[in-house]
Amino acid sequence: MSARDPFQSLRRDPGPAASMPSRTQVWQDVQDRLAHGHGFWVFAYGSLIWKPAFEPMQALPARVWGHHRALRMRSLRDRGTPHRPGLVFALLPGGSCAGVVQRVPDDQAEAVFEALWLREMEGSPYRPHWLRAQASQMAVSALGFTLPGHSERHARGMDEAELLDILRHARGRHGTTLDYLLDTARALQQHGIRDPQVQALVALARRHGLHGLHGLSGPPGSGSAR
Predict the structure, then answer these.
(1) Is the pLDDT of residue 222 over 70?
(2) Within 10 A of 163 (CB to CB), how many other CB atoms are there?
């Protein structure tokens, strides 16, 4: 895919004063897209790749501009606790991100939307965002869940020692931060998506002898670039 940025209007962080789109508003957006034959697409960049909320009609590698993937959202429940927060990937403002666009079957749109909203939005700092995603043969508007740069759950300025401590010890109701990182790395590899930042995190864990690194074939993230 070209490194050209055709979606410059998506670069800006909405900032703390921006109003949060409501569930009703986003569902109306979904209905409008279905009515115009555009389909309901979801942009997956982390656990939605390897643990989707539905069986997609189509799943295509794609890139969005204006946001980048980073292991920088503090997890207080799923991959950590309030006393020992973990980390999960988030879409933060700036740059671009290669992930997977998943098309929801039209007749399952409402049920999938409800499940996604419960999974991604309940008790989280995410902001629902319609992202312009470029796949190999087409561009689609896909629902993504982004983290505003000003969020208090944005883990800024983390040093290597703190990151390693989290990878060694943080655990929540869905498992460890380390397992979450490795599951995402494997899923990206399976889709042929190369993310240097994810590769660097896996390499860091490997250098420090952390467990659970089996199953990543060859060098981390050795799939072709997207």
Answers:
(1) no
(2) 18
